[in-house]
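INPUT
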Amino acid sequence: MNADLEKLQESNKTELERRGSIFNIGAPATEAVTIRDQIAVGFGDGTVRFFQSGSDPKTVKAHKGVVLSMTNYEDHVLTGGEDGRFLKISSDGNIDEIFNFGSKWVDCVASHKDTKVCSSGKTVYIWTKNKDKPQTLEHQSTVAGLAFDNKGKRLAVSRYGGVTVWKLNNNKWTASNFTWKGSHGTVTFSPDTKYIVTAMQENQIHGWRINDKADLAMRGYPSKIKSFTWVGDTPYLVTSGSSDAVCWPFDGKEGPMGRKPIVVANGGKELATFVKALNGEKAVFTGFTDGSVLLAEIDESKKPIMIRSSTGSEVSTIAISSDNSQILIGDMKGSILLSSLWADN
Amino acid sequence: MENTSQVPVTVLTGFLGAGKTTLLNRILTEQHGRKYAVIVNEFGEQGIDNDLVVDADEEVFEMNNGCICCTVRGDLIRILSGLMKRADKLDAIIVETTGLADPAPVAQTFFVDQDVADRTKLDAIVTVADAVHLSSQLVDHHEAEEQIAFADVILLNKVELVGDNDIVKVNDRIRKINPFAKIIKTTRCAAPLDEIVGLNAFSLDRVLDIEPDFLESDHDHEHDDDVTSLSFVSDTPLDMDKFQDWFGNLLRTKGQDILRSKGILNFKGEEERYVFQGVHMLMDASPMGPWPKGKDRSSRVVFIGRDLDKMNLKEGFENCKSA
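OUTPUT
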């Protein structure tokens, strides 16, 4: 643990809330991503707002209806909306409509370098540099999650019955299927790209070791897992869905197979709804159903610290600025806390 | 289950051409001062264009928990959770299903998925039936029977095209399948919207509205695979343990064939009425306050399903009577 984290632990919740700014937007915060020194947040009223320390957020009226999905793309954000539009938005309010799907929602978006990806219904659309027409990848059912591996060579697409991993070779995508009964949502590659993991519509997460497609069923949650994040060098996959942040170890040959997870950041009777790694640390922010947020090290003997007190509305997003200086927390009522993480900032 | 912040969801079923689109267009365009979102299926009829219309595929998937009845509508889970993120609150959501769809997975979604159950509630299943063609559709398509069987409200539409005698016949045919649905006879689906939306038909206290008239006779039926209903009344108090054993086992083993079940129960030694209602194997049950003073404490149960006569329901129910 470094000195900064220790300093942070000396501060208490009132400090972080006192030195920060609170904005009441009035619509659920749905997604947040970091672009340079700004944090872009999508809302249920269709706006994307760019937050920056020391100034009021810049509001971009992007979608009609809910901002369903968002990711960063160069200096921009890509968003998908309930209005069927897939947009590229700059922080100065420039909106570039990449495609309009009409009454079909744009459920998921993803990017890697200069490649822009979205899904609508069963189809994934891929725009590569200097090409107007997208490549399309078809699936047997509606796409519910998209994730690139760190090199951008593989794209995981979750759906009913499992995940399709598409591999790019000589400008052609070839599919490999990972099967597990049920409906699969948000999907992620492990940082070493040896595993893929999905959050299911049931109260469990499911993983596969990619080289032999071995299954990892991670069960025992009291509610759905809406959020997960990779933490530390081990690494741990930290998940929401329980009264604690549940941390599965993905080291060694077998990963979490046959091992128990570590649980940190106990929320009492509240359930964790959002988790976010603190970059470069073995620590995680955990947001709960009542709006409170705890920061905890992945160590059951350490006490977590309160970052944000209860607002009465579940935490729906947390983002950390790229230089680790600012944290943004948003909830389903549209209350936003933007604060510096470090006391002397 | 009861929670005022839950948005009510009406499920609209009916065969192609029965008049679902007419009804949806009315719901979307009439000046009712309410905000309704409509989830339509992509193979539906044309002619609905509105910002509050959401396109969906009817994607049914089986849960991984081993319960054969746990097929749910995955697209509904996704879309309802998206709609719940809107800044403006919806007064109600209407889900249109295709004419050939089995209504069970839609209803089961509201029992099985916790997020859906937390934020929305199944208000009623409304079936639009074509008075001209229903009789032949019931013979040719078991989906038509299921849509009638599941319904809380049946709009018997296009009655202006049918003679009085035929209306009585089709009305009787519906009653044989479903004794408790409310039947509204309409032309161009012109029924008051407050008789279609906001009914709270799946709330347990609505079970108390079961009309005893429908419950006194067993029905004969014509084919083995017909959907029919059976109902039983008992003035002798029931034994709670015996009932739970019998009913639990019944739903576990025959839940596939029992489409809907409802009942009000008088258990020996209990002051409160017990009420239940089920969709296939899934069931909601709860005590519902004391019996009204001066009224008979009789237990009443209704089953709608296939092959009911092979389930020894009468015998099973009789055996639950307390000694």
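end of record. Residues 13 and 105 of chain A are 38 Å apart (CA to CA).
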